[in-house]
Amino acid sequence: MAETRAAEELERLAEVAAACTACGLAATRTNVVFGDGSASARVMFVGEGPGRNEDLEGVPFVGAAGRLLNQLLSEIGLQRSDTYIANVVKCRPPGNRDPRPDEISACKGYLADQIRLINPAVVMTLGNFATKLLLKEERGITRLRGRAYPWWNRVVIPTFHPAAALRGGPSVLASMQEDFALVRTTLDGKSEAEAEPDSPAQQLELFG
Ligand code: URA
Fold first, then answer.
1. Which of 49, 132, 155, 176 could form a disulfide linkage to 148, CB 3.0–4.6 angstroms apart?
2. Are 47 and 127 in contact (CB under 8 A)?
3. Domain coverage including residue 58
4. How far, CA to CA in Å, does 188 sit from each of 70, 117, 121, 135, 182?
5. CATH value at residue 164
6. How far is the CA of 94 from the centre of ligand 1 (A)?
7. Which protein residues touch ligand 1 with a CB less than 6 Å away?
């Protein structure tokens, strides 16, 4: 029942996002890439922002980075449809440039709502932008990855962005495989009951 309500609320939020003009990215996007996956996922992934393929299809991680994400998931016995995948910004930054602070601020409420509604036990942040937004850390991903951080009644496990593994080769990939294995052991060790819904006060403070 709660699951159906979360799915319905996510759909409503996606409709709101589809008409969003809160930042300049609205002018150049083809599609808003809201998110994809199960409203009752126990693990959620947060990337940076849609690339060209994602902008054209309206679905996150459908290009080469997405294929690597699917492979890493299958190595820990998960399918993409067991998870929920979203990005820090929902519209493609032109030319795949980094999202700007004003764009992240304009968009972060959607991500906070997605996390609140899905209520996953584990959030895996992919790369620096998602990790910095959630953990409010100045240290980069190389320093932060490799462990689980308690975060609003759940854990955040940071790892490299899949695009970094595509560029960086086997050592980056091996680190990502370790981090995905940590997702698996964390999920296995965690009961459903451990991810309590956040209180209203916590929800407001999610991203400060
Ligand atoms: N890179 C991201 O960060 N997100 C996507 O959806 C695709 C590529």
1. 155
2. yes
3. 2-205
4. 20, 22, 11, 23, 10
5. 3.40.470.10
6. 13
7. 47-51, 54, 60-61, 65, 87
Query: What's the pLDDT score for residue 169?
Result: 86
Residue type, 69: L
In the chain, pLDDT over 90 holds for what percent of residues? Answer: 89
From ligand 1's centre to the CA of 48, what distance in Å? Answer: 6
Whether 21 has a pLDDT exceeding 80, the answer reads yes
Q: Three-class SS string for 131-184?
A: HHHHHCCCCCHHHHCCCCEEECCEEEEEECCHHHHHHHCHHHHHHHHHHHHHHH
Q: How many distinct structural domains can be found in the chain?
A: 1
Task: With CA atoms as reference, report the closest residue to 49 among 75, 28, 71, 70.
Answer: 28
Q: Which two tokens stand for residue 189?
A: 């060790």
pLDDT digits (tens, 9 = 90+) for 66-91: 999 999 999 999 999 999 999 999 99
Write down the residue that tokens 């939020």 correspond to: 13
